[in-house]
3-dehydroquinate synthase
Amino acid sequence: MRIPVRAASHSYAVTIGKGILNEAVKSLHDVFAKADKVIVLTDENVWAAQQDYFEANFPHAFQVMVMPAGETCKTFDNYNAVQTFLLEQKCTRKSLVIAFGGGAVGDLAGFVAATYMRGIPFIQVPTTILAHDSAVGGKTAINHVLGKNMIGAFYQPVAVVYDTNFLLTLSEKEVRSGMAEVIKHALISDAQWVEELLEGEYVTELPEELMANYLAHGVQVKANIVEQDETEQSVRKFLNLGHTYGHAIEAAAGYGRVAHGEAVMIGLVYCLLLSERYGKINHAFTKRFLHFAEENGYPFAAVHDFTFEQLTEYLMKDKKADYGQLQFVLLETIGKPFVQKVELMECKEIDEQFRQLLV
Ligand code: NAD
Ligand code: ZN
């Protein structure tokens, strides 16, 4: 399946399906014909799990750099090491970067491509469920010790090639994490889809074909939003549903302990509680959603590891925070997101309500 993304700066397609790597890459012959070198950036886990399949199906010669896994690849040190590698390989402005991995590799490789010689082309080859979100839309970044994703650029890939065979080696934790972003896409766009997810099988046990459909649906939701607002001036903010509180949990726990999507799921429940107050979400729905998330093994116990005061430190670091007020994406009803400023005192009240619901 091909899903076009018509971003203001550049249009490209997301090709998604099982076993499509070889054909989808071949169909990009114009891009590869122009490239004097192809550099594959990946991480140690992805390469260990998927090297054989990648080498058997990738139809071009390439140089590979295998980076440390997870957030470690988004450090300044690793960014520097990758740029050094490109320079040593004598890459030019015509060289092509392939981001082969999850969101971390994609964010790093995209930022490398955005900045090497002021910008060279790159292709996203996502390998996680979460990356159905991160690989589309052109947000690239590395982390600063003072904040995650603080140094980055909007820089669109020339294509996204999403072969769902890569997902077969993901751990349950990573499947659960990625599915939270799928559920987020459902919540901001489509009440019927949310029903289907809530009534469906465990997120870690979805049949392959259904999973591929959900990923395509999620990519479509993201593409529609990015087409309207590439640089997050308006509707792109909706994609941050669950992320304000979620990022605070993720950061407080220490990156990697609670996976990004696991933290987002916690943030989604928090936003539903806030949406009862500012929107028309009813409490029965919030409780049902929480029950679904708990049944699916999302780690809500993490909330009790921190006081609200501890979380506040991280909440205030949010890129959208402003003088004692936080900006949240909330839901009027399922499928109808809006942006709302909320006073910190009120955030604390909802936090208390949330904790009571969890005991
Ligand atoms: P990740 O890239 O760290 O991957 C998670 C783990 O799974 C890593 O240990 C990785 O090595 C491993 N892995 C990846 N693919 C695998 C496979 N096929 N088989 C076995 N193991 C595999 O994390 P992620 O969850 O994909 O993405 C999280 C990152 O994405 C964060 O850095 C977050 O900030 C970023 N993100 C970016 C955007 C965006 O719009 N740019 C959106 C959401 C998240
Ligand atoms: Zn996210």
